[in-house]
Amino acid sequence: MQRRLLRAGAVMAALLVGSAAQADWQFNMPKGVTDISQEVYGLHMLIFWVCVIIGIAVFGVMFYAMFKHRKSKGAVSSNFHESTKVELAWTLIPAVVIFAVGVRATFTLADMYDVDNADMTVEITGYQWRWRYRYINEADPDAEVDYFSSLSTSRDEINNRLAKNENYLLEVDQPLVLPVGQKVRFVLTAADVIHSWWVPELAVKKDAIPGMANEAWTVINEPGTYRGQCTELCGRDHGFMPVVVEAVSQAEFDEWLAGKQEEARQVAELTNQEWSVEQLVERGRGVYQSACASCHQPDGSGIPGAFPAMTGSPIVTGDIQGHIDIVFNGVPGTAMQAFGDQLSPVDLAAVITFERNALGNNMGDMVEPIDILNLNASE
Amino acid sequence: MTTTTHDHDHDHAHHGPAKGITRWLYTTNHKDIGTMYLWFSFAMFLLGGSFAMVIRAELFQPGLQLVQPEFFNQMTTMHGLIMVFGAVMPAFVGLANWMIPMMVGAPDMALPRMNNLSFWILPFAFAMLASTLFMDGGAPNFGWTFYAPLSTTYAPDSVTFFIFAVHIMGASSIMGAINIIATILNMRAPGMTLMKMPLFVWTWLITAYLLIAVMPVLAGVVTMMLMDIHFGTAFFNAAGGGSPVLFQHVFWFFGHPEVYIMILPAFGIVSAIIPAFARKQLFGYSSMVYATASIAFLSFIVWAHHMFTVGIPFLGEAFFMWSTMLIAVPTGVKVFNWVTTMFRGSMTFETPMLFAVCFVVLFTIGGFSGLMLAVAPADFQYHDTYFVVAHFHYVLVPGAVFSIMAAVYYWLPKWSGKMYNETLGKVHFWLSFIGVNVLFFPQHFLGLAGMPRRIPDYALQFADFNMISSMGGFLFGASQLLFLYIVVNTVVAGKPAPAKPWDGAEGLEWTVDSPAPYHTFSTPPKID
Questions:
Q1: In a domain? residue B423
Q2: Alpha-carbon distance B18 to A325, whole Å?
Q3: Is the pLDDT of residue A346 over 60?
Q4: Are B82 and B51 in contact (CB under 8 A)?
Q5: Residue B31 belongs to a domain with what CATH number?
Q6: Residue A141 gets which letter from DSSP?
Q7: Vertex B204 angle, CA B201 and B209, to 5°
C-alpha cells in the first residue's frame, strides 16, 4: 500500500515538474510580454523550485521512513524525541531561504508600484458587466476617447445552440488599444461593485473599487492581442466581462485614436438631427441589448424578485419625464445604474423610445436626442 | 502520562442517559453533545458537498448546461458558508466536546448548560441560512467572503437572514470557545500540568482564544452591513463617504485567524495519531506548542495578504508579504516534527494513520502553494484564480477534513465501543485520496493558465482540466457516502472494541472502557 502511496507521490512530483517544462501546454503561468511579467514569472519559478526542493527533501525522508521503519519489517521504535540542534537548524534554514526570496520579491514589488513618468493614462471603470476605457487627454478634454468594452460572444454559443469559437468568452466588441513601447498608466475605479482588471500576459491585476482610484502601469514589448478577465466576483455576469488588449505600433495607435475622435464627432452631430419614432426604436434595439438586456432580459420580461420587467412597467408606460429620470439618474441603492453619463444623448433617447414602443409596450411617444442634451446641460 | 485509577465508579451507573428525544434536547453531557455536533457537521458536509457537486457538474463542460449564473453564484456562496461554518468548525467542536474532558481527566465540560445551548442554536442558524434558497431573489450570491457593496447595496433581500444566521453561528462559536477554555484551565486532573496536556488540547486551547478574538469582529462586520442595508449608514458605501475596502480589512481581520481556527485542531489530531501508529513519542512536543502559539500570533498580522490587489500602499504590501512568508517557519517546524516522529518508528498503517500521513503530505502541498501566494508580485497573477481555489482546498479538504476523518476512525472504537471494518476504511481512504487529488491538483494548472474563480462558464482552453477536476469531484463526493455507511455499520454491527484498540496510543481516554461510560472521571485520575 505504501508502494502505491509512493507511486502516487511520484506521479504528483512528475506533474509538478511537468508544470515547469510544458509551459506551452498551459500548465504554467505565461511569461508574458512585459519586463515586469517576465520578472514575475521568474519569481514564480524561483519560489516554485524552492518548494519542490524542500518537498523532495521532506517527503523523501518521510517515504524512506514509511518504507523502512514499519512494524511488518521488524522495525523497533527508537525513543529519541528532542534535539535542540536539529530543531534550531530547521527553524533557521527556512527563515534564511525565505529571506532571500523576500528580498528579490520586494524589489519587483517596488518596480510594480512605480507609476511615475507615464507616457499616457487610461482610466478603466468597471461596470456590471463591462469595462469602460477613457483615454485621458488633459490638453484637449473634448477630444477624449471614451467607450465601453462588452463581451461579444453570442448567447447562442453560451447556451450551446451554436458551436463555440476559439476566443469563446474572451472576445469583446471594442478592445482596449494601446501602443507598444510606451509606459501606460492605468487609473482604475468602478461604478457599482468591485471588479478586478486582469491581463495575465501583462502581469497587471488591480481591483476596480467604487469611490477609489487605483493605479497600475505597463510597457508592452510586443504587438499582439492579449486576453484576460474580471477576477473579482461582481454579480451574475462576473464570468462574462473579459478584457481584451490590442497592442499596436505607435503609428497604428495614432491612426486608431484619430478615427475614434472622428466617430465621437459624428455621434455628436446625430444629436442635432431630427429623428422619427421608427429610427429611434431601430437604434434603441441595439442599445437595449447591450446596456439593459442582461438584467431586464432581452424580451423585457425581467427576473421576478431581482429585476423588474419592462413590459407593462408602470415607469415605462407612465409619464415620459419619470422614465427619462430613472434611466438618466438610476435608482440609488439598487442595481439600476445612472445611464446619464454612460450613454450618448442619441443612445439615451433611442433606448427610452425603444422601451416605450417595443417589448410589448406601445406608448407611441418619443424623446429627441436634443432634449436629452438640453437635460444634460441643465443638470 | 499514566493513570493509577480507572473510572469504574459503579455508584454512578444509575445516572445513565434519559430515554427518547429528551436525552438529546436537554442533555448537558459532553459525550452526547459531542455526538450531536459530529452528526450535525456530517449532515452539513453532505449538504455543502451536494452544492459542490452542482458546481462541478456545471463546470464539467464549457457553456451553460445545468444552472444559470445567478444560481451558480448562490451555490458557490452556500457551499463555502456551509462547509466553513457548518461542517469543519462544528466537527472540531464536536471532537473537542468528546475528547477534551477525557484527555484532561475532567468529568464533563466546565459549563454544561451553555454547551447544550451552543449546540442547539446551530440547527436554527443553518435552517435559516438554507431557507434563503427558496426566497424571492434567491440565496446569498456574493461569495462566502461577502464583499461589500455586492453584499449590501446589490444584495438579494435574503442577505438579512444570512446576517442573522451568521450572528447565531458566531454566538455558538464564542460560547463553545469559552467553554473549552474554562474546561482546560480549570478542570484538569491533579498533576496534569499545561505542558503535559495532549497536543489536541493545546491546539484547541489556542484555537478557542482565536475564536474569542475574531468571532466578535465577524459579528461587527455583518452588523455594519445590516446598518448599511436597513438603517441608512454608509460604512461600506463610497457614495455616502464609506469604503468598500474597509469591509475587506474588517472581514479578513476575522477571516485569516479563521483559517487557523480550521487547521490548528487538525494539527492536534495528527500529533496524536502519528505517534500512536509509529509507536514512538511525538518529536519536539514543546516546539509543537510554541509553533502553534506563533502561528496563532502571526495569524493576526497577515490579513491583508488576501487583499494584495486592492491597492494597499507599497510599505503595507511589503509588510504583509514578509509577515505572511514568516508563517512558513513555524508551520515547517510542525511538518519536520511529524516526519521525525515517523523516522525510526515502528509503523503500521491502519486507516487513521493513512489519513494522518496523507494529511502531512497534502497539507504541506497546500502550504507550499500558500508560500507562493505570499510572494506579492506573483500573487498579482495567482489572486482570485483557480490557483487559490486549489490552495485553500488542499489545506481544507485533505487538510482539515482528512484530519477529522482520521479522528473519527481513531476514536470511533472509544465512542461506540465497536470496531470499524478496516478493509472498508482503507477503501474509503484510497477513494478519497485519489478523488481529492484528481479534483484539486489540476486546478493549480487552471489558475496558472488564467482561469478566474467563481465563474460559471469558461474559455475553451480550460475545458480538459475542468472535466478531469469534475470527475475527481464526483469520485470524492461519492466516496463520502461510503464513509457514512462505514460509520453507521460500525455503530450498528461492529465487533466489540477493547478499551485500547491501538497498541501505541497514549492518553487518558484509553484508560476508560470502550464505549466510554456515560460519565467518566467523576473521580479525577492521578497523573504522574
A1: no
A2: 68
A3: yes
A4: yes
A5: 1.20.210.10
A6: G
A7: 130
Backbone angles phi, psi at B251, to 5 degrees: -60, -50
Residue B470 grid cell: 469534475
Rg (CA), chain A: 28
* Cα–Cα distance, A265 to A290 (Å, whole number): 22
- Which residues, 6 or more positions from B173, have their beta carbon under 8 angstroms from its beta carbon? B89, B93, B118, B211, B215
Let me know if residue B472 belongs to a domain.
no
Q: Which of B70, B371, B460 sits opposite A47 (nearest CB)?
A: B371
ipTM: 0.92
Which helix H or strand E contains A231, and what residues bound it? none
C-alpha B61, offset from chain centre = 30
Residue A374 has pLDDT above 90, yes or no: no
Residue-averaged pLDDT of chain A? 88
Q: Quick check: is B139 in a domain?
A: yes
Q: Count of domains in chain B? A: 1
The b/e string for B67-84 (b: 16+ C-beta within 10 A; e otherwise) is bebbbbbbbbbbbbbbbb
Between CA B348 and CA A71 the distance in angstroms is: 6
- In three-state secondary structure terms, B458 is coil
Identify the residue among B455, B461, B464 best suited for mutation to test binding to A, counting A beta carbons within 10 A and taking the highest.
B455
Digit-coded pLDDT (tens) for B16-50: 788 889 999 999 999 999 999 999 999 999 999 99
Q: Taking chain B, what is the end-to-end CA distance rounded to the nearest angstrom? A: 6
Residues of B annotated as catalytic are 79, 108, 144, 172-173, 256, 258, 260, 271, 305-306, 331, 334, 453
Q: How far is CA A275 from CA A103, A338, B35, in A?
A: 64, 24, 74
- Mean per-residue pLDDT of chain B: 95
Bridge partners (DSSP) of residue A146 are A134
Going along A284-366, which residue ranges are E strands?
none
Q: H helices of B494-508, where? A: none
Whether the pLDDT of residue B3 is over 50: the answer is no
What structural domains and CATH numbers belong to chain A? 2-112 (1.10.287.90), 120-268 (2.60.40.420), 272-378 (1.10.760.10)
Rounded (5°) CA angle B193-B195-B201:
90
CA distances from A354 to A279, A308, A369, B4 (A): 10, 17, 13, 88
Above pLDDT 90, what percent of chain B?
95
Partner residue opposite B441 with nearest CB, options A12, A239, A334: A12
Residues facing residue A349 across a β-bridge: none
Range of the domain at B166: 1-198+507-528
- Name the DSSP letter for residue B11: G
Chain B residue with CA closest to A206: the answer is B309
The enclosing H or E element of B398 equals: none
Q: Is A302 on the interface with B (CB under 8 A)?
A: no
B459 has a pLDDT exceeding 60: yes
Evaluate whether residue B420 is within a structural domain.
no
Contact B147, B253 (CB under 8 A): no
Beta-bridge partner residues of A243: A228
How far, in Å, CA of A243 to CA of A221, rounded? 18
Residues A176, B277 contacting (CB under 8 angstroms)? no
- Residue in A28, A72, A206 closest to B448 by CB: A28
